[in-house]
Amino acid sequence: MEKPLQRPRAPQWLADKRFADKAARRQHWEELDKLIAAKTMNYGMYDISEILQKVNVAATPVMNCEDQFSDPHFREREVNVEIQHPIIGTEYVYNNPMRLSDMPPTIRRPAPSIGEHNDYVLKDLLGYSTEQVADLVAQKIIL
C-alpha cells in the first residue's frame, strides 16, 4: 500500500518581509526560487502537485516532451497521436485538444512538406503562370 504524502511543514521564511507580497517576491525571486527548490527537492512533480491541490492551490507538473509521453493521464486522453508522414515516416504530433461528444478529434494528415502546396497556392489561388512559378524557383525565392 502506498504511503500517503505528508504535507511539508511550513518554512519560517514564509513570514519573511522579502516575500510578503507580489512586488517583494518579484524583487527577490532568485532567493525565493532557491528556498522553494530546497524545500521541494525530495518530492516528485506529481507529489508536489497533489500536496498543493489538497490545499486548494491550482497546480500541475511542468513536463517536457518525454514526461508527456509517459504520463498516464496524457496517454488516456490521447494528447499525442501517431501519424505517418510521407517523408519522415512515423511521427508523433499533438492531438486536437477539442473534445466534442458528436465529433471526436482526428488528425487527418501530417503537416505539409516545404513547398508541397506551392503550385496550388501560386497557380490556383493567386493565378501565377507556370513560367512565373519557375522563375521564383530559379531565383530561389521558393523551393
Oligomer: single chain
Rg: 26 Å
Beginning-to-end CA distance, first to last residue: 60 Å
Could you give the order of the helices and strands? HHHHHEEHH
Strand content: 5-15%
Largest sheet: 2 strands, antiparallel
Please bin the fraction of helical residues: 25-40%
Number of E-type strands: 2
Output the number of helix runs. Answer: 7
Overall geometric form: elongated
Quote the average pLDDT.
89
Q: What class do helices, strands and sheet pairing give? A: mainly alpha
Number of separate domains: 3
Which sequence of strands runs across the widest sheet? 1-2
Uncertain segments of ≥5 residues (pLDDT<50)?
A: none
Overview of this structure, please?
The chain is built from 7 helices and 2 strands. It is mainly alpha-helical. The chain has 3 domains: 62 residues, no CATH class; 48 residues, no CATH class; 32 residues, no CATH class. Strand 1 and strand 2 form a beta hairpin. The longest helix is centred in the N-terminal third of the chain and has 12 residues.
